Amino acid sequence: MEVIAFLICFPFAAALVLSMMKQHGKPRKYFIFASCIAIVAAVLYFSAGALISGKNTAYLTDARALDTGILVGEFAMMALVIYFGFKFKKHYVSLLSIAQTALIAWVDLSGPETEGSHIVADKLTVIMCLIIGVVGTLICVYAVGYMKDYHAHHTEFRDRRAFFFAMLFVFLGAMFGLVFSSSLTWIYFFWEITSLCSFLLIGYNRTEQAIRNSFQALWMNLLGGLGFAVAIAYCEKQLHVTELEKMVTAAVGKPEFLIPVVLLAFAGLTKSAQMPFSGWLLGAMVAPTPTSALLHSATMVKAGVYLLVRLAPALAGNMAGTMVTTVGGFTFFVTSLLAISQSDGKKVLAYSTISNLGLITACAGVGRHEAVWAGVLLMMFHAVSKSLMFLSVGAVENNTGSRNIEDMHGLVVRLPELAFVMIIGIAGMFLAPFGMLISKWAALKAFVDSKSALLVVFLVFGSASTLFYWTKWLGKLVAMIHNSERLPNTTKGSEWFSLVSQSFIMVALCISFPIVSSGLVEPFLSDMFHDKVPAVISSGNTHIMLMMLCMIMILPLAVRFLTFGKKKKVVMSYMGGVNSGDDRTFVNSFGQKEDMYLANWYMEDYFGEKKLLKPSLVLSSAAIVVLMIIVIGGAVS
Amino acid sequence: MKVSVISVLLYLVLGPVAGGLLAGIDRKITARMQGRRGPSVLQPFYDLFKLFHKQVVVVNDVQDFLVWGFLVFIVFTGGLFFAGGDLLLVFFALTLAGIFFVMSACSANSPYSSMGAQRELMQMMAYEPMVLLVAIGFYDVTGSFSVSDIIHAGSVPAIAYMPGIFIGFLWILVIKFRKSPFDLSTTHHAHQEMVKGLTTELSGNILALVELSHWYENVFLLGVVGLFVVTNAWWSGIIAVAVCLLSYFSEILTDNIFPRVKWDFMLKSTWTVTMVAGVVNLLILTMIR
Amino acid sequence: MLKVSKSPWLLHYDGSSCNGCDIEVLACLTPVYDVERFGVINTGNPKHADIFLITGGINAQNAPVVKQIYAQMPNPKVVVAVGICACNGGIFKDCYNIDGGVDTAIPVDIYVPGCAARPEAIIDGVVRAVALLDEKRKNMRKEAAQ
Description:
Chain B has helices spanning 2-33, 43-52, 63-82, 87-107, 111-142, 147-151, 163-176, 204-227, 236-257, 263-288; one strand at residues 57-58.
């Protein structure tokens, strides 16, 4: 219990200290490192304890004082939103905030006292804790070095680093709070903190675009929050449940529970940036890289899918589940098509995040145990590899001044270390023996078993386009240009530490996924579905995947060994005989040298945002609205 | 267990022999269709031998590693298939092998091979959905992804339940066998607008490895065709071989009849066929089962 | 039994030819002559080719191109000059812009004269080139052994 309290409270305390440390320099740096170490140690201690005891625990059955504190906190947040709403003349956010806070306050103050635990720790909590604690803190470590370079490059922005670091830690604290809470009101409170926090982080630069995007993020998340608040009100007033888990357990097979379930699912969809709410996550790119990394991998969007995974049993085989799977599957498919047309590295990553979250969402919506198994594993693999990708793109940008994929041509020669880290990240995102594919395998099986042909279609076409945009990026990285100079690698020590540890975690996770699956994911599923869950993936297949992984690792050495001592003649590439000798220029018909430029295919006319974005937003909005009306209407009548 | 070890060994040894002979027969039949005599059926083996004895010429140091990766994972794919492994994993391994091949072309940093690489990726994107649907179709019919379970599933061949998926698979075989009209990335026909594409910068023994992988791959793909027909009766094997040869012949015929198309036509038509033949078939399967 | 000569892949390069010889070269691939029955393939890529078949003379524009393509071919390789222009410049020999035959740029192994060279003559040249390939292969082995 103490360690949980520490995990929730310590980041907030650290944030408070950081917001006061205005001086740049060593003290702040070491304070951040020390806090990160403390958090990681606490997370490891907690996870080890939870794993050894193997029990799920619930705490704080009576927390009236804390409840009041939380209510005060919610009012403070409302005041903050109204302040920003007035300052930037965006009054609609104030209205949204007032509506939901008033609703929650009314429920809290008027309602009969209900008994129930407020804090709960089970296997999913452990998984989420590890993600937030390890990946999240690594991002914070990375941010220390990165922000220094960032402000050196961008002198036009005001240096508000103290605020920035404080916000990162608030984010971590809020995420810990969210995953440990079992009371709906508490989850809602931390949920709102993450919304507000992401709003502040996205608007960090205070440019016009940053402010516009941050308000977009705010209103979308507040809309989800409103759904959440209504769900809480309905739960407490009509159904007399205050705990998420009890609600989900009770909801299986009962139509009257569908209303809160669908509203919570709606909140989850907004937070995990599913279509039509994908806009805010794309807009979040204006912020410095650690923000995007944090929002995309360890926190924020993971809160959305976390809620959906918790809801999974209540979504199985009903219309609420259909809404979630339809929106998730559709998002997976469309955003992976959209990613093809993007050349900005961060934007590709953003679309791929949304697309992967779509897959997790669809898995949760199916509600069968294999699907949820796949969803949870996807969540873990995605957190690590996506954070790795964002951070390495950020490092490349600091080195070369560009995050465009076209400019990463031949990176393996120019910045070999960063290129290798990036290759590991990309491989983790979609390649065969690595994590994502295992989950995709299970997801496909679950979708077929649940007889949802639509989902299968989304998944097969989505995977095909995923393959396209990742491989072409990979291709850019491995292009070997002769006579390229190595760029001086200016990546800071802290950034390196973060990148390398994440690469190791990535590989370790791929190797150890059978243990993770049997030790964490399967027990969690057994608890959640209240029965013994059979192993999702047979041991034979696990062995085959590990074999493939070993082959990939041995292959470079084996080939070196095989070709050792053989004489190889290195020649120029073929350019119709007019290669001017360095593989970068050719002689044109005037006898002059001309630069060669090898571009990837982006096919704007087919997969561009102009072509696809609007129709898919309309379609997905229509799907959400219609299905929600059907669910709520069906439940009421 | 014993059976699967023997069949994997047979695939490892006889795979390239069969693949090479098929390539030789292909060239002979193509020549006859064009009114020529054509080379000896053993010609592909002569070519392979020649390539292994050429001087080693490369444009960079990672090419041979990547091409070895291609070969190793193609052989792994086929081996897993003939060992009766999981069909989805088989196809994932195939994709991985394909990615190695594309990487080898990208690493060359040359205009023709890079154009070939982009086109190859486009081809992969076009056929991937259908390939996955094949696995899903088998799962729907037999209740298992495992090849050995699929073979022993019953006395009715899978093709009876999934003719649409079979047609879709034949369609994408045109891409996989690198036959006109979908031989965009690399081709055997000297008259196309871009001939070697992907393999432009590969030569000598590295090119020989690519040829070898293609033979292994072709045998594996025909194995998948056979899987549509095989039942637990012994004579179904003979019919399967006949169906394989027939579909191989139809691919050769297609190769000689149709001119190369542009990538957008390939993508659109392949995805349309996947939807119309594959997905509709799958929908019907989901309904009747 | 298995020799390089069983699979001669060739690369056809048009120097400054009038296209007469080129048409005859392509005629070799047609059903009437069908050089593919000897395993000949027109690769269009120096890195795959064993035989470099050139038509037309060498001028300032194409001399470096011919040299580069020749350098990109892996050993063993044979050069066949097809047509009188490729052999020594032909009727263009005295033009201000013509250097002369192919041998002014790279070493030529087989000369096939004619204007235009007849398909039979071209096939004969290729067959002789093929014999030479085996010999060069042997020499390569010897050198490697030493």
